[in-house]
Design a protein that fits this description.
This protein has one domain (2-78, 87-171). Helices cover 83% and strands 0% of the residues. The protein has 184 residues and is mainly alpha-helical.
């Protein structure tokens, strides 16, 4: 069953990222399917923060779909918002550090999570990247590149080799996404 879930997650994941690179609002619908699959898979593998991350991604994906479909500022000519303000970046960095620490502590004390601190750090970094993506901020791709590289090694360690390969591909796609959005 894990193989079926992993393959289904890989297929929907690749399609979703490809559509995000192309600035298609449909990426968010595919993302919802993808995150529900991975929520279940990560729970089975005792990656609880990553399982929780998928639930949050589902909520953020609904928000992203709404933003990319109904927010006139983001719809006009598939406009990419290039700059995140200095103030917003400082706030996001502080939020990242605090939430990573709190979630890591919680996972270490109250669960049998495999890698509580790493799991929480990757989870919080992913949430920030996803938030920036909903706002069409190009910095989302930079964060995804960094997060995806680390996820490759985590998934290899957990024996999720197909998912590790997927995240290596995500890293390549994130580089492509960054270049394509920058060219817009």
């Amino acid at each position: 069953m894990n193989s079926f879930l992993e393959i289904s997650g890989i297929i929907t994941g690749i399609i979703g990222v490809y559509l995000a690179i192309r600035l298609s609002p449909l990426c968010w619908i595919i993302s919802i399917i993808n995150v529900l699959i991975y929520c279940f898979l990560f729970w089975i593998e005792k990656l609880y923060a990553d399982s929780l991350l998928q639930v949050l991604f589902c909520i953020i994906s609904l928000y992203g779909w709404y933003q990319w479909t109904y927010n006139k500022e983001l719809i006009i000519e598939k406009k990419v918002m290039y700059k995140t303000s200095y103030k917003e970046m400082i706030l996001l960095c502080m939020l990242f550090l605090l939430s990573s620490f709190v979630l890591g502590y919680f996972l270490r004390i109250y669960t049998d999570a495999s890698f509580p601190e790493l799991d929480s750090t990757l989870t919080c970094g992913s949430l920030i990247a996803q938030y920036l993506q909903t706002k069409k901020k190009i910095q989302n791709w930079i964060i995804w590149i960094l997060v995806d590289i680390v996820y490759v090694f985590l998934f290899i360690n957990k024996g999720l080799y197909s998912t590790a390969a997927l995240y290596a591909l995500y890293c390549i796609m994130a580089i492509r996404g960054y270049k394509q959005w920058k060219a817009h």
